[in-house]
Amino acid sequence: MSIEQTKCLIIGSGPAGYTAAIYASRANLSPILYTGKEPGGQLTITNDVENYPGYPDGIIGPQMMEDFKNQALKFGTDIRYEMISKVDFSGGVHKIYTETDHEIHADTVIIATGASARWLGLESEQKLMSKGVSACAVCDGFFFRGQEVAIVGAGDTAAEESTYLSKMCKKVHLLVRRDEMRASKIMQDRVLAAENIEIHWNTTTDEILGEDKVEGVRIKNTITGATEILPVSGFFVAIGHKPNTELFEGWLDMDENKYLITKPGRSFTNIEGVFAAGDAQDHIYRQAVTAAGSGCMAALDAERYLAEKGII
Is the dihedral of CA 305, 306, 307, 309 positive or negative? Predict the structure, then answer.
């Protein structure tokens, strides 16, 4: 089996990965970027992006990521639509293996694998996955036009997706575990302004009802213990995300939630020549603009590292 050599390998293709690729390409590092299972990352399932600088009229997430990708391609990034299955960071040259067992030796690695949606963990949730249960209102909301739906969550994602659903659904039941939301004030104001969104405070999901499709949800009040069945045909989960960092367990330092730990103000991990950017290491901001900024940082750090080692 032949071994491929590269100065810079980027794992992940969201704002962090593509921005790192743009900077690395312009620095003549000839980066190879592996997109992973979700090319473009979470923004490919985001409808309106209103807060990214440079788009005064907003832009849909998929188009934005297509723009990022095309800019990376323009400067010569080698983009490959495949998964990385294993890494070996035991030596000075980092070994990366693809799902087709292709072996790559990289002088530097930039990790931008992002994060994925969290689920409630209910048996009924898994049974009815893609049969009315979804973690992406933008992807699947269209199928529930004119119907009643429920969505679980209390942060900006839940607020954004419930507002999105309210524009096409007859009624949206927002299930909030506590007596307050974590969402930013502007997002909460949008929820409260939507006449067809009903907020159920102090509420948990007891069970999603239905055999071959969602036919309702049984909710439970955490104060009184009373249960109620909501006649919904769609059930959306928006309770946060988990970093996609399993691949690096045992190699890279992580916090208790498995986010990669980087040197404060830098992209350095505990392994020399391995850098991290985006939502895989950011559990505070988790925004496209901060992910892109950290992707820039990682590429610059990688370039300087290579220069210090005399590789470039």
Answer: positive
